[in-house]
């Protein structure tokens, strides 16, 4: 296990880097113009998605508040993935509206534009660059950020190195910083990918079954990580592991989807006691 060098040395290890001398690129994120003055970051209103007449989403309405960690649960086929696909522009609603803040109409933007506007998505399977180190993965993620001035073939600024150091601490991969990502455990790869998303400073983070395939210890650490992110980012987490959902939901809202729309919404205790939720999901 290689020890992590002081962060001041990190830029010296950088394979790619900053722009011409004197051009500040840290603190680099342009205002993205997401209007959240009404307190919500995501508004889905009466969204329907039909696949050849079959309604994967059927009049789905959902608001997520700024800084909220919203858990989405529901049986297989309830429409959870389709909902994420609508938010990220992968699937267009047949009808209904989807807004990021009050002003950004997600149904009119390309997937890349939505990502650039501040929505990050993590799919179920980790997709890290296996041949690169943990550090390089975080660095590449930061530099893939379209809002950052192109910085290939130059060095990291101190601020960028600090940002990587902070993320490493958050995802607890400081001891693995120079390890090839392909050598990490499944859980570590998942954390690294979350870290890669964080490097792009998303306003809204979508996580699809983040603890699937994790050990109990990894699941516990992931719960701690998400609890740390609560309030700093807005998060939507789709998950089937109810113990995990209980741990990250706290007293916050859990939304239960069923047949493409919201069946119930409330605290974990409230939805767990809901007879309809027990019938279609929890009681199975
Ligand atoms: N491209 C598609 N064409 C036809 N039907 C689709 C398509 N995508 C999804 N569906 C259907 O829409 C429904 C909702 O699927 P979706 O994947 O959103 O559910 P889910 O809640 O994410 O399920 P799971 O928990 O199994 O991941 C399912 O019945 C699925 O078969």
Automatic annotation (TrEMBL):
Recorded GO MF terms: ATP binding; ATP hydrolysis activity
A Gene Ontology term for the protein's cellular component: plasma membrane
Sequence segments annotated as region (Disordered): 1-30
Superkingdom of origin organism: Bacteria
Keywords assigned: ATP-binding, Nucleotide-binding, Transport
ABC transporter domain mapped to chain residues: 42-284
InterPro entries according to UniProt: ABC_AA/LPS_Transport, ABC_transporter-like_ATP-bd, ABC_transptr_urea_ATP-bd_UrtD, BCA_ABC_TP_C, P-loop_NTPase
Keyword Nucleotide-binding in record: yes
UniProt name for this protein: Urea ABC transporter, ATPase protein UrtD
Species this protein is from: Orrella dioscoreae
């Amino acid at each position: 296990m290689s020890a992590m060098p002081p962060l001041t040395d990190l830029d010296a290890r950088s394979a790619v880097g900053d722009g011409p001398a004197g051009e500040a690129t840290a603190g680099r994120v342009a205002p993205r113009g997401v209007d959240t003055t009404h307190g919500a970051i995501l508004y889905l209103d009466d969204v329907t998605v039909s696949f050849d007449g079959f309604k994967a989403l059927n009049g789905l309405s959902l608001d997520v508040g700024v800084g909220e960690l919203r858990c989405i649960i529901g049986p297989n086929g309830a429409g959870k993935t389709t909902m994420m696909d609508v938010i990220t522009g992968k699937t267009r609603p047949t009808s209904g509206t989807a807004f990021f803040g009050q002003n950004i109409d997600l149904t009119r933007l390309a997937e890349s534009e939505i990502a650039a506007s501040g929505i990050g998505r993590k799919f179920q399977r980790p997709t890290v660059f296996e041949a690169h180190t943990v550090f390089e993965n975080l660095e590449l993620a930061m530099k893939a950020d379209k809002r950052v001035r192109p910085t290939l073939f130059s060095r990291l600024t101190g601020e960028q190195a600090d940002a990587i150091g902070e993320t490493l601490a958050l995802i607890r991969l400081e001891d693995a910083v120079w390890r090839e990502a392909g050598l990490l455990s499944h859980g570590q790869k998942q954390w690294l990918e979350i870290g890669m998303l964080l490097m792009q400073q998303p306003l809204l983070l979508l996580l699809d079954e983040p603890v699937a395939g994790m050990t109990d210890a990894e699941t516990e650490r992931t719960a701690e990580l998400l609890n740390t992110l609560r309030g700093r980012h807005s998060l939507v987490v789709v998950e089937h592991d109810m113990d995990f959902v209980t741990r990250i939901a706290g007293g916050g809202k859990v939304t239960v989807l069923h047949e493409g729309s919201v069946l119930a919404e409330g605290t974990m205790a409230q939805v767990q006691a809901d007879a309809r939720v027990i019938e279609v999901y929890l009681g199975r």
